[in-house]
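Bench log. Compound arrived from synthesis this morning; before running ITC I wanted a structural hypothesis for how flavin-adenine dinucleotide sits in the protein. Inputs:
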Amino acid sequence: MAAQFDAAVVGGGVYGCVLALHLRRAGRSVVLFEQANALASRASFANQARVHNGYHYPRSFLTALRSRVNYPRFLAEYADCIAAAVPMHYAIARRGSSVSADQFVRFCARIGAELWPADDSIEQQLDRDMVEAVFAVRESVFDAERLAARLTRDLAHAGVEVRLGTRVEAVERLAEASDPVELRVRAGDAVERSRARVVLGCTYARTNQLLVGSGLPPLPLKHELAELVLLRPPEPLCAFGLTVMCGPFFSLLPFPPRRAHTLSHVRYTPHHEWVEPAQRVADPYLRLQRGTPPSRAVQMLQDARRYLPAIAGSEVVGSLFEIKTVLPESEVDDSRPILLRRSPELPQLITVMGSKIDNVYDLLEPLDALLAN
Ligand SMILES: Cc1cc2nc3c(=O)[nH]c(=O)nc-3n(C[C@H](O)[C@H](O)[C@H](O)COP(=O)(O)OP(=O)(O)OC[C@H]3O[C@@H](n4cnc5c(N)ncnc54)[C@H](O)[C@@H]3O)c2cc1C
């Protein structure tokens, strides 16, 4: 007889872990399946680690406002996973930016996000022919390794059954529409069965693989094979974060697990893009398993040095490649909407997809409301 749970969570990234904890704390028995051998080891690890506080979204007021609400909550709940205070900055490019410095200041005032003049020592690092203004801001980076360790401990402590190295291939209906559903779970060469009254699909880049494997139609999603260059910047830049706004520019942010910074560039970070369902691939992760494309570190550095000359003295120590997945709405205004969707054909399966770490909080109340119906 297959083990039965109130809830099964598929995918142990930050979303799956936080939602599994939420369901468990509400008194449900919860099992979490993660195909990797560690939690939060995919997009929840290989990202820029920015805890957004609104500044990044002048083109999407709602996303900016939600970031302002979620930022203090994330900082308070995961204080032990936040990197020691790093001075963070936003610079406005003089040419090619879709916001001017004045507009950025007005936008920050509207969302209540504080700005300060950057220190002279920072100003001096920037080429003022290229940069109209630079501001110090209140924003943070998290340590993805500490966050994974913390979530692992929290799940164990809460009594969530965590099954690493298990891939859910399908969620299948039993005889009656209102019955629990059965999960077909691959663990190495073996196939196991588990049952749950509700299943949360938190598989991010593999959202459609779970749906299609379960005989359901895929959702419209856009994927990018993204590269973040890992580098050690020279002394004046090493305890410092900078984002150049708002267009085809770059961000340089600390990445604590590797004692390095990530360099990302709007033009060079995405190596390859595709949309589902039109260009469906069997498994987006296979694109990375087959090998990564040649690094674009040189192109990123060549462009970034035009704004921040000292970055040319950085030591490149590697790259993180990961699949970034967004909802098509994000393309219109750079917003970061979230997906919370009950499958009409199989109501026990709820698909969740978030677009940044902190907006997992935006899901908790709507999820409770959905489960109450
Ligand atoms: C390059 C890049 C930069 C980013 N920068 C930021 C940033 O600075 N700040 C920010 O807040 N957000 C950022 N993001 C977005 C953020 O990383 C994601 O929104 C977040 O990690 C999504 O979490 P998740 O748990 O949904 O996905 P993931 O962490 O990818 O978790 C999904 C998990 O599901 C597992 N899985 C998949 N299919 C199955 C299956 N069938 N059975 C079992 N397990 C399965 C996977 O192994 C994986 O562990 C960035 C993303 C990328 C890629």
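What the model suggests: Residues 61-77 form the longest helix (17 residues). The chain is about 25% helix and 30% strand.
ITC booked for Thursday regardless.
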